[in-house]
Design goal:
alpha+beta
């Protein structure tokens, strides 16, 4: 027989030992030689002295028989099944024991990136398999002394113990002691089914002895002890030393003290009854037995045993808590891992999942978020928030806070809002501008006109975007439009980019939650009309931070199975979503605090102590607030609101989400340890957003660097090489600005002419002037509604210049009268009875013409007034509102000075968004001198003006409220003019 065992340097002799009267599997005591044995009849109550030699002979023969059985019996286990003890035990259990796979259920542990425990996942019990060198020597010594003192020197069975047990059983007339060694107990657990495992018949004992001896030939003693300890039930659903140590004491098995180890060593005898968390006194009594046995077998002195017994024990205050930190993230990781590994494998396969989470950063995020929500709640009725932080470049999730309080059912705290779709408001606009820059539709210096516009959605249904502040801002650069989050320019830009293109770009940048068909989304997409998750939106901003490269977010840093074998985490999707140039242009705008100051103020919560690019978002009725932004080393997104969608109280992304974002981001910047974890540079220059190589800055002497009168980047705007190639010799502002020979145009409202704009004439000085809108960027509208909308936008732009002096080219001076007629109608103010346009042709050659009209300024032929001068018309009676029309109409009649109907008079109608229609008073007998305009059935404001053949106004404008204001809910309105 092969002798494969380790010999102690001071082996413990166990001759003459027998089981105690209790018959417990681990208690060993001396059996008195005078012990009474039962009579051979085995009848209870019949007791007689048995000759000592007969008892000794029977015991010895039994021991020899069992020993010889193990040596002589045919081998049942065959070759060693695996190289490691754990693998071998799993294979044996699969062969001989029923149940799900793997048979050795182990706890799956989820840790942060540096090994801090986040959670344990388990079902039927907790277990973490450990090699002996990671188990406290105290626990090893205590277990051997209690269960099998000769373990390291016996051959799997202990003949002396067998003899002692046989003697005791003979004396008691039945089986009261089994003399099982550690190896025999291991064999029982590995190879015998539940029905046979606790049988005390001789055949079963002989089989157990044979298997134990065979195991001894196949495995080293250390391997056998490793298997034995890790398969032990320590009560409280804890299996193996590591689980037991963590459950009871909250520490690793390697760190157990002598007192803790001796308490644990006694539990496996009766796990249900000796659980110290349920019956402390019973567990302590058993600990005393273990300590005494260690003394008996030379492992402790009596004084050491007493000292250990007197040592206080501090138990784990939360032995059953499975998730200790970052609960939303843990659930997210579990879902991702189950998708990767299989739903059944995760909770019982002992996976070691090292995540990307940084626990100190996560803790900071949770604390700051909860504190800010509590601070903002009374003012804004804001009860919840979520935060996600990513590491630029590799997509690692560093923090994920799904709610302000996971345990608060009142806010549905267990719902992870970080992965729950919500409308993002204007926080999605950077994806639109990125597409526009990528496609060379516009540059950051392109002029967008923030003026009223109407889009027909369907018959009788219109979409009318409005700005958050309720104002119009006229011509603005794309930089200003994005930085200040103006809605109307964004909608106009989306109309040019197209919804399909924006969706394509947004999804490529990371907004995978935009899953609906493109036909479902409309122009409101750029204002947050589609639902996205916070994680997706933060990922899209990370794409900007990554120079346009999309990196799929991941929670996994490393994976290893229960045997420590590594598994490659899922391959992250990586793609170049947009060009580095487009990504940098958007980033540069979002980092430009001066650009956003008009809307956000100079001291706003988007500012940090280091350069940061950020964008806010607010949905209708203040239901969702967002702020997402990044530095060179950290990307963070924040949502704030109420889980049930209840509106907050007058709060925007700037006042609701931005303070949380700012508080967290600045706290990270102020913490040297967290900055070190991010591998952030100490050099301030390294924090700057650097333009890529294919960018050029227009800032040199003589260069036209910015549209006149508008805001551009300090020091000169940056343009991509592709944009400069597209604009060519006309320069980077070719889509918005032209050098035009022009004369100044003034508006006189009875207080002298005030400069408004310029009209084109030759000869004249060349002036850089804004082009009137005619499409967007370098594009040109193609017929139909788009072309009509462009014409209406020109009228709106002309009207803007009457109130807001702008260096804009109004067109040829000799066509100014007709061109300005619709604009004059749009600009009508009943409280201003007189206004006219003046052109100073004499100042055409003067590049420094003043802001006030000089003596050489002359009225334009298309000047208008409401003063009742000859040839003009005025209202014959107030406008009436009624319901006598067959639908929605403006009807009326034109009368001459004598009150007779006057046919052939042209009436111009312009709605509040610049859409124009014309009608003429009729000549037919039935409606001589009458006119009518069919109008839409939604609220609008219409301006009617009588004009001459050249389009010059012949009346003061008349404003008609339809389904609003003075018009009430009347569908029909009557206007009657008199004059001529």
């Amino acid at each position: 027989m092969k002798n494969n065992h380790r010999v102690f340097s001071n082996p413990i002799q166990n001759r003459g030992l027998a089981r105690s009267e209790t018959g417990q599997s681990g208690e060993v005591a001396f059996a008195p030689r005078w012990r009474l044995a039962r009579s051979e009849t085995g009848q209870s109550g019949e007791v007689a002295f048995a000759p000592r030699w007969r008892l000794a002979l029977a015991a010895g023969l039994l021991a020899v028989a069992m020993l010889l059985t193990g040596c002589a019996a045919p081998k049942q286990l065959g070759e060693r099944p695996a190289p490691t003890a754990q693998e071998a035990a799993e294979i044996y259990l699969q062969r001989y024991q029923p149940g799900p796979l793997p048979r050795i259920f182990e706890t799956t542990r989820i840790t942060d990136r540096r090994g801090a425990l986040l959670a344990e996942l388990w079902e039927e019990g907790r277990r973490t398999w450990l090699p002996l060198n990671q188990i406290s020597p105290h626990l090893i010594d205590a277990t051997i002394a209690t269960e099998d003192a000769t373990f390291y020197i016996n051959l799997g069975i202990d003949p002396a113990r067998i003899a002692g047990a046989a003697l005791q059983n003979a004396q008691q007339g039945g089986v009261v002691s089994g003399a099982s060694t550690i190896t025999m107990q291991l064999a029982r657990n590995l190879f015998l089914g539940p029905d046979d495992r606790y049988s005390q018949n001789m055949d079963r004992k002989m089989l157990e002895a044979g298997l134990a001896q065979e195991l001894t030939t196949l495995f080293s003693k250390d391997e056998l002890l490793e298997m034995y300890l890790n398969l032990l039930n320590y009560g409280h659903l804890a299996y193996g030393p590591e689980a037991a140590s963590q459950v009871y004491f909250g520490k690793s098995a390697a760190d157990l003290t002598l007192a803790e180890a001796t308490l644990l060593a006694g539990i496996p005898q009766q796990p249900a009854n000796l659980d110290p968390l349920k019956d402390f006194d019973a567990a302590r009594a058993r600990q005393r037995v273990v300590l005494d046995l260690m003394v008996r077998h030379g492992k402790l002195s009596p004084a050491q045993a007493d000292e250990a017994y007197a040592q206080p024990l501090t138990f784990n205050p939360q032995p059953d808590r499975r998730i200790a930190a970052a609960p939303h993230f843990v659930h997210y990781v579990s879902d991702q891992a189950q998708a990767l590994l299989g739903e059944q494998a995760l909770p019982r396969s002992g996976w070691q999942i090292t995540t990307t989470l940084d626990l100190p950063m996560q803790t900071l995020a949770q604390e700051r978020l909860a504190a800010k929500v509590a601070e903002l709640q009374p003012q804004f009725n804001l009860s919840n928030a979520a935060l996600t932080a990513l590491r630029p470049g590799n997509g690692e999730i560093l923090a994920m806070v799904g709610s302000a309080d996971f345990a608060d059912a009142a806010i549905d705290g267990q719902v992870n809002v970080a992965i729950s779709p919500r409308q993002p408001g204007s926080a999605i606009k950077p994806m639109l501008y990125a597409a526009a820059f990528e496609d060379n539709l516009i540059s950051p210096a392109s002029v967008l006109w923030d003026l009223p516009v109407t889009y027909t959605v369907s018959a009788g249904e219109a979409y009318i975007p409005a700005n958050y502040d309720g104002q119009f801002h006229g011509p603005v650069t794309a930089r200003s439009a994005l930085a200040n989050s103006y809605n109307i320019p964004a909608v106009k830009l989306l109309d040019a980019v197209t919804v399909a293109r924006m969706l394509e770009n947004a999804q490529a940048m990371g907004l995978k939650s935009l899953v609906r068909d493109q036909g479902w989304y409309g122009l409101s997409l750029t204002l947050g009309g589609g639902e996205v998750t916070l994680l997706d939106l933060t990922t899209a901003f990370a794409t900007l931070a990554n120079a346009g490269t999309y990196v799929e977010p991941t929670p996994f840093l490393a994976l290893a199975d229960g045997l420590g074998r590594p598994l490659q985490p899922p391959q992250q999707a990586i793609s170049q979503a947009i060009s580095p140039a487009a990504a940098w242009q958007v980033t540069d705008i979002l980092a430009d605090n001066t650009a956003r100051t008009p809307a956000f103020g100079a001291n706003n919560p988007l500012r940090l102590s280091q350069p940061a690019a950020a964008k806010t978002g607010t949905t209708n009725d203040w239901r969702d607030n967002w702020t997402v932004g990044f530095t060179r080393y950290l990307v963070t997104g924040v949502w704030a609101g109420n889980s049930d969608g209840q509106p907050m109280r007058n709060t925007s992304g700037l006042t609701g989400a931005a303070p949380i974002w700012n508080d967290f981001m600045q706290a990270v910047l102020d913490d040297p340890d967290l900055l070190a974890r991010l591998e952030a540079a100490n050099d301030p220059a390294a924090w700057q957003f650097q333009p890529p190589a294919d960018m050029a800055q227009a800032s040199g002497p003589g260069e036209l660097a910015c549209p006149p009168g508008l805001f551009c980047r300090s020091g000169g705007e940056f343009y991509s090489r592709e944009w400069l190639s597209a604009t060519g010799a006309d320069g980077p502002l070719a889509d918005s600005v032209a050098l035009v020979p022009s004369a100044p145009v003034y508006v006189d409202r009875g207080q002298g002419g005030q400069w408004a704009a310029y009209c084109q004439v030759e000869p004249a000085a060349l002036r850089p002037l804004l082009k009137l809108p005619a499409g967007l960027g370098l594009s040109i509208p193609v017929g139909g509604e788009a072309n009509a909308r462009a014409q209406n936008e020109r009228a709106q732009a002309l009207a803007w210049t009457l109130r807001h002096p702008t260096a804009v080219n109004l067109g040829p001076c000799d066509e100014l009268g007709a061109a300005m007629a619709p604009a004059l109608a749009l600009d009508a103010r009943p409280d201003e009875p007189t206004a006219q346009l003046l052109v100073d042709l004499a100042a055409a050659m003067d590049p420094n013409a003043g802001p006030v009209a000089g003596d050489t300024a002359a009225p334009v032929a298309a000047a208008w007034s409401g003063s009742g001068q000859p040839g003009s018309f005025s209202l014959a009676e107030p406008v009436s509102h009624h319901a006598t029309c067959p639908g929605n109409y403006i009807v009326g009649q034109v009368l001459d000075a004598a009150g007779a109907p006057l046919p052939g008079v042209q009436i111009s109608l312009v709605d509040q968004w610049g859409n124009r229609a014309d009608a003429w008073s009729k000549e037919s007998a039935g409606d001589f001198g009458s006119f009518d305009f069919p109008i839409n059935f939604f609220p609008n404001q219409y301006t009617l003006t009588i004009v001459d053949g050249a389009g010059a106004p012949l009346s003061a404008p008349v404003v008609v409220d339809h389904l609003q204001g003075e018009g009430g809910d009347a569908p029909c309105h009557t206007v009657i003019w008199r004059g001529g």
